[in-house]
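Two records follow; treat each independently.
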Amino acid sequence: MTEVVPCPFTFANGRKCPGHITRVEIYKCDVTWTPHEDGKWRPSVTEVRSHCHLFCSEEAATLRLDDNGGMKFYRRYLPDSLDLTGIGEPG
């Protein structure tokens, strides 16, 4: 089972969002397709050149008004509990 990752969004009044991350979109990334032993081609993200958008279970945190900057993170600033190991890492 996947671990639930708390939403990092903070509302303007200082209240933390009670939701959890439901999806991550990676922007401006390089995808490489390679064949596997079963003969099927599989994709992998080899480099993230921009940012990620996090989506929350609570609609208020995910609203994309003016491209919600509160849910936009560069890789190095993603919450530690969001394990995207192997995504966009060299090798």
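The next record belongs to a different protein.
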Amino acid sequence: MTGLVTVDLTGKHITAGERAVDHRLSRECNCPVAHALADAGFENVKARACTFTAGHVTGYLHTSGKRRRYALPPEAVAFIERFDDNRPVDPFTFTVNADDFVEVLYE
């Protein structure tokens, strides 16, 4: 996958998502943004194996032993914050640049 990718976050993703109980805990991510990214074709962004930190989504590349961190747009970060704070959220569309990532080696 290359270039700009349009991601449609739907009501289905919101219903399937789970809120982070405590942002300080290291836990698997099961939020609507992760589900929407997976449906948009980010094959290595697993809804149960991603983390959101400082405006980035991290997708784990299981086959290569590496992970990629993709930049999320501000509206997706704001959605995550509202969703996790149990505030009302609505479906929306955002764009992710699939070429804009940093590879991080596992330790």
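Discussion point: The longest strand covers residues 4-9. How would you locate this feature using only the token line?
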